[in-house]
């Protein structure tokens, strides 16, 4: 008869050595290889110019090598389940799943050999416990294998979405995860209790053909050797023996199961990183939004304050975790895409040229013939040959950019420039004039500047006034010139 003490011994059966070696190998893998940092999703501010990039299943960025003027919000779309991503700006470190915390002990009922009198009723109950434990393990093992295939299919599905620049459908991902959840739960059960049926410690017997005394296979062999008990319980003993042989040391299922469990537990951790957990109810699972995890964005601003321009090139490194789905828990290979985009920041200073309109009057004096002489003759008086209260001037203006819209359509500047007032001698001659004020630019090409115009005004010298008779000894108009202020409006253009 099988003793209760021996039956309880099956409750502490551990993983076999192959799994221990697998876990040890995983623990020794460099952390920087398995847990590359994920760039913080800083988000794009409202109205920001957004630049989208898509990482293909090969780890490379499509349409790479582009250049854009900043500021710009760079948004990288990638398969978060396939890749761990490292960008050379705004990154944070995040460790990957830590399997060293996985418990290697579990619970499972079983039976052992016993001496003394045999309680047939107890023995039959022990047999059913063994059969139930083996059947549950076999079902879970099949679920784990199916689960790995389901993860592969889900990763491929997401690859296709990223490649087609499609949005990530939360509801579809949640549904696919719901279908996968039983397999992940099976891996959780197995990680704490895999039966090695010809051992009581998890270590393989010295003689592979002979099960260790007290092991499941040893107990089943005793059941078969008892003709009376075997005849009464033949179907259960045979079924249990068939299952037990699948999980004895060296059997294919026993060899592959620990590795498959480790793989699925690894991916269970990957799903938890995007908010999907086996502990979620169906109602809570339907509320999980995973789309935001499949893109990272960083807002790159331009901070040049001197007359300098800058270029910012970014490099991307991806670590493909899908090698684990084939049982390879070693360090994932790195795929680098150097300089896949460049953000340029132009100098805040610019120069434009065009035309200015000034409100300082432009006057040219002259000696003009006027009526009023004796005998209906003319007399010479002081007058104007031309005058204008609003006149154009050629102008060149330097601007310093103070603010610019996200898409570079509009900008505000502080501006100062010089214009040339081309005049004849009767207007005091040509002179340099100046404008300073604020500007609005359009597409960094067209500038509209309004502000204070410092220019010259011309007046009659010697106390003469317009309309007075010219003395006989005056042959040229005496003029004086001085600076004054007025309003200036300029329209200028940058060099093409």
Short structural summary:
This protein is an alpha+beta fold and 496 residues long.
Can you tell me about this structure?
The protein has 496 residues and is an alpha+beta fold. The chain has 2 domains: 4-345, no CATH class; 349-494, no CATH class. It contains 10 helices and 15 strands. Strands 8-11-12-13-14-15 form a 6-stranded antiparallel β-barrel. A 4-stranded mixed β-sheet has the order 2-7-6-4, with no helix packed on it. Strands 1-3-5 form a 3-stranded mixed β-sheet, with no helix packed on it. Strand 13 (431-442) and strand 14 form a beta hairpin. The model is unreliable at 1-41 and 89-117 (pLDDT under 50).
Features:
single chain; disordered N terminus; 6-stranded antiparallel barrel; 4-stranded mixed sheet; alpha+beta; 496 residues; 29% helix
């Amino acid at each position: 008869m099988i003793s209760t003490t021996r039956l309880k011994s099956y409750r502490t059966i551990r993983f076999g050595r192959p799994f221990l070696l697998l876990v040890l190998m995983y623990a020794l893998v460099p952390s920087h290889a398995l847990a590359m940092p994920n760039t913080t999703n800083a988000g794009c501010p409202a109205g920001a110019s957004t630049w989208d990039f898509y990482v293909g299943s090969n780890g490379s960025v499509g349409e790479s090598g582009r250049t854009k003027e900043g500021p710009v919000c760079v948004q990288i779309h990638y398969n978060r389940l396939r890749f761990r991503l490292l960008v050379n700006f705004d990154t944070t470190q995040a460790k990957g799943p830590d399997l060293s915390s996985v418990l290697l002990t579990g619970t499972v009922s079983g039976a052992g050999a016993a001496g003394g009198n045999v309680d047939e009723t107890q023995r039959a109950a022990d047999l059913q416990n063994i059969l139930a434990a083996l059947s549950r393990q076999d079902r879970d093992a099949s679920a784990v294998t199916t689960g790995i295939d389901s993860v592969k299919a889900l990763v491929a599905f997401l690859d296709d979405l990223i490649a087609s620049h499609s949005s990530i459908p939360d509801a579809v991902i949640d549904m696919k995860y719901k279908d996968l959840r039983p397999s992940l739960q099976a891996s959780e059960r197995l990680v704490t209790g895999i039966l090695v049926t010809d051992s009581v410690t998890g270590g393989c017997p010295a003689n592979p053909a002979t099960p260790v005394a007290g092991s499941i296979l040893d107990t089943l062999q005793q059941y078969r050797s008892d003709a009376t008990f075997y005849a009464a319980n033949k179907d259960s003993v045979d079924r249990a023996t068939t299952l037990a042989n699948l999980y004895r040391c060296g059997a294919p299922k026993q060899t592959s199961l620990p590795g498959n469990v480790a793989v699925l537990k690894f991916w269970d951790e990957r799903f938890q990183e995007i908010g999907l957990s086996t502990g979620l109810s169906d109602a809570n699972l339907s509320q999980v939004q995973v789309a935001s995890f499949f893109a990272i964005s960083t807002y790159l601003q331009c901070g040049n304050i001197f007359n300098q321009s800058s270029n910012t090139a970014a490099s991307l490194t991806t670590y493909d975790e899908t090698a684990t789905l084939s049982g390879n828990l070693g360090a994932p290979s790195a795929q680098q895409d150097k300089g896949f985009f460049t953000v340029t920041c132009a100098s805040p200073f610019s120069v434009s040229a065009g035309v200015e309109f000034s409100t300082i009057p432009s006057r040219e004096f002259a000696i003009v013939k006027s009526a009023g002489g004796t005998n209906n003759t003319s007399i010479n008086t002081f007058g104007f040959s031309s005058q204008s209260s609003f006149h154009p001037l050629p102008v060149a203006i330097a601007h310093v950019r103070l603010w610019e819209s996200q898409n570079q359509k509009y900008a505000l500047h502080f501006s100062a420039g010089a214009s040339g007032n081309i005049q004849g001698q009767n207007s005091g001659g040509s002179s340099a004039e100046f404008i300073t004020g604020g500007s609005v630019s359009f597409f960094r090409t067209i500038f509209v500047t309004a502000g204070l115009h410092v220019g010259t005004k011309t007046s009659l010298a010697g106390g003469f006034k317009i309309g007075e008779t010219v003395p006989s000894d005056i042959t040229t108009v005496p003029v004086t010139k001085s600076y004054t202020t007025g309003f200036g409006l300029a329209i200028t253009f940058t060099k093409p």
